[in-house]
Structure formats: structure tokens, C-alpha cells
Amino acid sequence: MKPYSVSFGGIPDKYSSWKSSAFVVLPFPIDLTATYVSGTRNGPRAMIEASGHMELFDEENKIEPYRAGIFVSTEIPVLTTGPLAMLKELEKRVKAVTRAGKFPIVVGGEHSGTCGAVSALKKKYEDLTVLQFDAHADLRDTYLGTPWNHACVGRRIVDSGAKLVQVGVRSISEEEDRFLRRAETVKSFYASEVRDNLADVTRGIVSSLTGNVYISIDLDVFDPGIMPAVGTPEPGGLDWFEVIDILRDVMRADCNIVGFDIMELSPLPGIVAPDFLAAKLCYRMMGWILAKREEKK
Ligand SMILES: [Mn+2]
Description:
By secondary structure, the protein is α/β, with parallel strands linked by helices. It is built from ten helices and eight strands. It has an eight-stranded parallel beta sheet, sandwiched between helices.
């Protein structure tokens, strides 16, 4: 795989080559199906550039995750033939990453990219659960003429046969609500439930995670107060510590985390805090993955 022009965290070549890296970041700069604000095509670049300004010491896990190696690949090329060709390319790359024994991380770009990653991982792991952080249920069967719209991600995950656990939902259509009521392999925790009882929701999430788990974070799960740089901002989102508290317990749960993504960053000119939040979240997750591996030894 060819490297991106900038390294994650601004780390030197020694820690960012394909060969020396435990983590592989795959930029998915696609915003073909954005319906409100477009601009997520600039998300991966903004996040990777912001990461160069982070402290490389993970103060929670007390380690420097970059020492395990972080390779960033070239961007998935943008094609105007529709989302499917780009999802296939992403699927191919995720497959190559897992085959090499490395850990895949997708950064986006519109949320539909998750389908490409899940497709690759579902073929490798029969038993797969996707944990989706999102303001939206994304359970529409099709939207604006394509089943690969960012508003259909959850539904495609269900179609793939993976189990789906959602958290932070606060915007849902009548069709989705009906689907959710009868879907046996989907569990949704609303943002209001997180606000009312974070500990119970966290326990509920952790107890529903078994086997292999892929984590998908649509940045609009956060409150627009701290994450205004998304295509479809919704009031009443989670704050930084709520997401971190849930993720911490998820990362310690008795399951195998096989990849994650951070999607839908739509950078705002002159406002870098959201880009930085996304970069730091990505790096913290690497820290937890490494801490868990260390514990298992
Ligand atoms: Mn969303």
C-alpha cells in the first residue's frame, strides 16, 4: 500500500512505514451522498493534519501509542460513478490490512464508508457485532435513490448479517422506528437514555458485545457544541467524557475489537477544535487497543 503525504501524529518514518506499523489508517474522503452540508471529503486530511499537533503521550493509558507504528495509506480515490466502486476499493484495502495482521482504522468521509469495512470484516469473522455511535439510526432501506446513502449504513449492516448496537440516537424516521421495533439483531440506546443514566446504558452496551466487534463513530453523536463540523448536526448530543466513559468500558469488555472508524468530519474554516477532537479520539482508541493487548499477554 502506498503512504499518504502526511503521517498520523507527525511521527517520523521509523514509526509510520507499512512494515513497522500495527495500525493502518485508511482515508475515505467521500461526500457524494451528503444531503445537508457537504464537505466531509476534507475530513480525513483535516483530521490527519490536526493529529500532528497532539501530545503523543496518551495520558489515560500512560503509553505512547505511536511506538506500535501507524501507517496512513493514500486516500481512496473519488469516483463519480457512485459510492459502490469506492466501497469496493475500501473493502479491498481493509482485507489487505487484516491479512497482513494489522489493525484497520477508517477515517471519513461520509458514513457509507463503514459498509466497505464491515463487508470485508464480515467475510473474515462470521460472528461480528457493529457498535455504532451516531445521532441517526441510519436504518433507511434506500435514501435519495441509492441504498449506499450515508442514511442507510445501519440497514446495510443488518443486511450483512452482523449484529448492530447503536448509541446516541436522537433523530429517526417513522420507517426506521418501525424497523427497529421488529429487528431482532439491532439494539438502540437513545441519547436521552445516556443523559438519564450513563452507567446503565454502558452496562447494556457492554453486555451486548460478544465475539468480534467493529466500532463505527459518526462524529455527529457528539453535541454540536463541541462537534459542529458534521454534515447533519443534531442538538442534544453526547459530550466528550460520556463518549470516552462508554468507550473505555467497551474496550475492556470481553470481546475482540477488530477495527474502527471515525466518520463524517466536515471541517469548518477557521475552527480547528473539531478536527483536533477527531484526531485525539482516534489516538485514544489506539491507546486502549494497545493497553488491552498488553493486559492479555
Ligand atoms: Mn449520523
